[in-house]
Amino acid sequence: MASHILVIFSFLAITCSMAAAGIEPGPLQDFCVADPNSSDCINPKLVKADNFFSGGLHVPGNTSNPSGSAVTSVSVAQIPGLNTLGITLLRFDFAKGGLVTPHTHPRASEIVTVLDGSILVGFVSSFPDNRLFSKVLQTGDVFVFPIGLTHFLSNVGNGTAAAIASLNSQNPGFIPIPSTVFGTNPPIADDVLAKAYQVDKLTIAKLQARFKR
């Protein structure tokens, strides 16, 4: 009985330490190149260098949209060899005044490096403090967004801007706060949102109309 309790406590300790570190389980092989036609890995003997390669990240994304920003992702979908390695790469491009809306990544921390321009970044700590940690970054500056916390990026320079980011998960998740609240299908009841945001139902209806899919 005592040995069983020891095993249970050991398992819990390992699980808690992994959760605290915010990492995914390590792979059990050198690589597991994703097979687009199944949930299995490609036969290692058939793997090629191109399975670990993706080009074109030097090309700016299209920022002609309401947010004035573009996000180019380099994930397992682009590089099958990233499968099980626990990493995703992003490129951000901004028109003047462009914004990456406040959002969270429930399964990853993120580190951002500015390639060009001046970018205001920030994240908010959890309740009840809700402290804003914010800074204007210049070319070459680096900033970290802790796992699960709401954060944003905004171009505050006089021209375009660009940045690159790495996230420690192959599936970090993306939860944009505005559309998650006001663009659900079916919509969250207007009286619930009106009370939560302390505004009238007409204001809620206008916001929901903007994010309606």
From TrEMBL:
GO terms for molecular function: manganese ion binding. InterPro entries: Cupin_1, Germin, Germin_Mn-BS, RmlC-like_jellyroll, RmlC_Cupin_sf. The keyword Signal applies. Keywords: Apoplast, Disulfide bond, Glycoprotein, Manganese, Metal-binding, Secreted, Signal. It is found in: Secreted, Extracellular space, Apoplast. One of its GO terms (cellular component) is apoplast. Disulfide bonds join C32-C41. The keyword Iron-sulfur does not apply. Mn(2+) binds at H103, H105, E110, H151. SUPFAM superfamilies: RmlC-like cupins. May play a role in plant defense. Probably has no oxalate oxidase activity even if the active site is conserved. Belongs to the germin family. This is Germin-like protein. It comes from Dovyalis caffra.
